[in-house]
Amino acid sequence: MKILLIYIFTSGVIKGSWSEECLFELKSGTLESQIGVDEYGLSTYQFTLDRGENVYIYDRYNSSIKKFSKSGKFITELQIPRNFEIWGMITLSQYLYVVYKVDKAGKDIYSLRRYSSSLEKEKILSEDTVEIGKCSDLMVYFY
Q1: What is the CATH number of the domain that holds 117?
Q2: How far apart (Å, rounded) are the C-alpha atoms in residues 108 and 138?
Q3: Among 106, 102, 57, 67, which residue's Cα sits nearest to residue 81?
Q4: How far is C-alpha 57 from the chain's CA centre?
Q5: From 85, 94, 115, 125, which residue has the greatest number of CB atoms within 10 Å?
């Protein structure tokens, strides 16, 4: 079983310096409190922190977003459809914002969705349909 270490990187006082702090470690797997790892040792590359220092992690292998406390205690999970791919997520105020991409009928559909901090209430804020391989303006605005 692999162990995933969740680090936060912060800029130092001296220009160009960075410090890192290990927030917590998670075991790999398919349980709610674990992060899946595929045959290449990959699973997630996206996470964000809210102002309470809770950590939201995109678990690509298990098709979910998982919320953990700053000490690593599992809080809740949002299952996402397997055909959805997360292209970005960020927390602002008490909300989690997520940009999804899904391929439907030969087109790429990007959507910006907002979730409550409990990950229960969802609101679609914007959607954009583009030709496959093209980037949506929604991606430019989000980043």
Answers
A1: 2.40.10.500
A2: 12
A3: 102
A4: 5
A5: 115
Mean pLDDT value of segment 61-71: 88
Query: Which structural domain, as residue segments, surrounds residue 105?
Result: 41-142
Are 119 and 77 in contact by the 8 Å Cβ rule? The answer is yes
| Phi–psi pair at 89, nearest 5 degrees | -155, 150
Task: Report the run of H or E that residue 139 belongs to, with start and end.
Answer: helix 137-142
Contact predicate 64/55, CB 8 Å: no
Report the percentage of the chain scoring pLDDT > 70. 74
What is the predicted pLDDT for the residue at 106? Answer: 85
Phi/psi for 73 (5° steps) reads -75, 130
Task: Report yes or no on 55 lying in a domain.
Answer: yes
